[in-house]
């Protein structure tokens, strides 16, 4: 079956924006290491079977020469039509649309230089299909991922997870959206088809010949790489044509390290209906939403009251306190304005004020779709249900020169400390603590991601010395529902409850500032019966 779904011109304009796309040359990197042999199939007759390839290609992002990128392409071998959906003209991988309960097999063939592995970000899958870097395969090899879709409906994604090169490979294009549907979601009759818009926000830098510019100097690795051009779905200067009616926007922060403070330019409240792990119990309205790398949100946006020809912008508002600041000292008020906070002299600073995309109302429609008052039923855990209610698993985040660490340790492929052993089918109380006083001016925000099942946030506590900068983002934190990534600010402790069910094995937890991850700010949980 052909995996390239014909998309109407309207959908092309929605996904690609009005304007032209372009792309750039990646530098040559030296690679080493090989992955293990292919895993055995979990089932004999999958519902969905996909052939996926990572390869080097060229596409147009900016006007002028095309840009060299690394791209996932896919062919649907078995399954419902529409399972694999390309974003026309984009370097991003195709959108994978899966249904809860489906048995999925993905045959991955690596054609890019060096090892590569795919992480199904946010999905609850067996260790061998989770994208642990020890399952990376070399160029020319093939590996099959087998898993059943256990997750509830939501916006998930997949991306390369190669040890010490996650940032580089995702930056050059190895990522794509993975959308799951279920019966509960379908019953809500949310906007769909042309009115359900996926939006992947990223930042990039380009050279004079439109080549993608990515540096791995120590400044960039410690602060995280930042670009100077904002792309949406792989396109600059993104414009979204809409009808005067309700839309569902699925938004992924696909940037390496940039945090976004998302708001509408006219001050309209942001209506959130879902986060990382799917639908919230009910819609929630915010003045803005804080979206850290790897986090996802779904928005309900009703353009019904707007005139044809009117415009509104989605923008990122200014904030402070997330980046290291030069000169040492405590207080967490650094804006990341120096080179150490830029990830390069020409980068747009983290916390800058800028436009992400323009929305244009281009036509009227006779539609009166209403926002549901109730979206979902969520089983909210209580602390007393945890296996360790009086002894939380505390993970200290430290940021010393050249060495971000978790509990003072760096990543080793299969290493597990005693306190990183977890009992299968248990609920664990976990604390992320970002209060390393010895770090002084090196303290910065860390988006912490745990592989496997999502978690629930119990509480957030910040030290008084960091309160001023903390409040520039805190009203946009989504603390309800299911999450798999949480931003831990300087001076903050975040307490959460995480189930470890169904699968034994090694499951990663790490900072999703990809340059920090590549500096080995990553560790394993070992789940055993």
UniProtKB/TrEMBL annotation:
Residues 74-184, 423-528 form the Plastocyanin-like domain. Residues 330-350 are annotated as: Disordered. It comes from the Bacteria. The chain crosses the membrane at residues 12-31. GO terms for molecular function: bilirubin oxidase activity; copper ion binding. InterPro entries: Cu-oxidase-like_N, Cu-oxidase_C, Cu-oxidase_fam, Cupredoxin, TAT_signal. Its EC number is 1.3.3.5. Signal peptide: none annotated. The keyword Transmembrane helix applies. Gene3D superfamilies: Cupredoxins - blue copper proteins. The keyword Transmembrane helix applies. Pfam families: Cu-oxidase_2 (PF07731), Cu-oxidase_3 (PF07732). This is Bilirubin oxidase. It comes from Nitrosococcus watsoni (strain C-113).
């Amino acid at each position: 079956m052909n995996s390239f779904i014909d998309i109407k011109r309207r959908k092309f304009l929605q996904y690609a924006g009005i304007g032209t796309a372009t792309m750039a040359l990646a530098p040559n990197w030296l690679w080493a290491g090989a992955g293990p042999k292919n895993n055995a199939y979990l089932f004999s007759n999958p519902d969905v079977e996909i052939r996926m390839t990572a390869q080097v290609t060229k596409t147009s992002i900016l006007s002028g020469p095309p840009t060299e990128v690394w791209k996932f392409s896919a062919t649907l071998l078995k399954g419902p039509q529409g399972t694999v959906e390309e974003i026309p003209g984009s370097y991003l991988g195709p959108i994978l649309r899966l249904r809860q309960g489906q048995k999925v097999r993905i045959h991955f063939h690596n054609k890019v230089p060096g090892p590569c592995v795919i992480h199904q970000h946010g999905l609850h899958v067996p260790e061998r299909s989770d994208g642990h870097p020890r399952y990376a395969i070399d160029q020319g090899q093939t590996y099959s991922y087998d898993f059943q879709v256990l997750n509830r409906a939501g916006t998930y994604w997949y991306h390369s997870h190669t040890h010490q090169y996650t940032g580089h490979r995702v930056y050059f294009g190895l990522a794509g959206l993975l959308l799951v549907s279920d019966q509960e979601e379908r019953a809500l009759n949310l906007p769909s088809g042309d009115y359900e818009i996926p939006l992947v926000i990223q930042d990039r830098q380009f050279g004079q010949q439109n080549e993608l510019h990515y540096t791995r100097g120590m400044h960039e690795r410690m602060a995280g790489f930042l670009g100077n051009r904002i792309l949406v779905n792989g396109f600059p200067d993104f414009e979204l044509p809409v009808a005067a009616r309700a839309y569902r926007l699925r938004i992924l922060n696909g940037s390496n390290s940039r945090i976004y403070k998302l708001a509408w330019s006219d001050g309209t409240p942001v209506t959130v209906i879902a986060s990382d792990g799917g639908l919230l119990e009910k819609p929630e309205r915010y003045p803005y939403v804080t979206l850290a790398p790897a986090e996802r949100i779904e928005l309900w946006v009703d353009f019904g009251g707007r005139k044809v020809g009117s415009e509104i912008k989605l923008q990122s508002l200014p904030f402070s306190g997330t980046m290291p600041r030069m000169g040492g000292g405590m207080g967490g008020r650094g804006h990341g304005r120096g080179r150490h906070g830029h990830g390069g002299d020409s980068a747009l600073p983290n916390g800058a004020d800028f436009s992400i995309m323009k929305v244009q109302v281009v036509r009227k429609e006779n539609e009166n779709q209403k926002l549901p008052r109730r979206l979902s039923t969520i089983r909210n855990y209580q602390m007393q249900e945890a296996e360790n209610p009086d002894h939380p698993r505390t993970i200290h985040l430290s940021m010393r020169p050249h060495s971000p660490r978790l509990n003072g340790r760096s990543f080793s492929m299969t290493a597990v400390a005693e306190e990183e052993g977890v009992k299968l089918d248990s609920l664990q109380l976990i604390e992320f603590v970002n209060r390393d006083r010895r770090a002084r001016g090196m303290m910065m925000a860390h988006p912490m991601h745990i592989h496997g099942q999502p978690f629930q946030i119990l509480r957030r506590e910040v030290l008084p010395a960091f309160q001023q900068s903390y409040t520039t983002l805190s009203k946009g934190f989504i603390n309800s529902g299911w999450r798999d990534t949480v931003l831990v600010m300087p001076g903050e402790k975040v307490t959460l409850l995480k189930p470890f069910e169904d699968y034994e094995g090694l499951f990663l937890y790490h900072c999703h500032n990809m340059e920090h991850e590549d500096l080995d700010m990553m560790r394993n949980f070992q789940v055993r019966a």
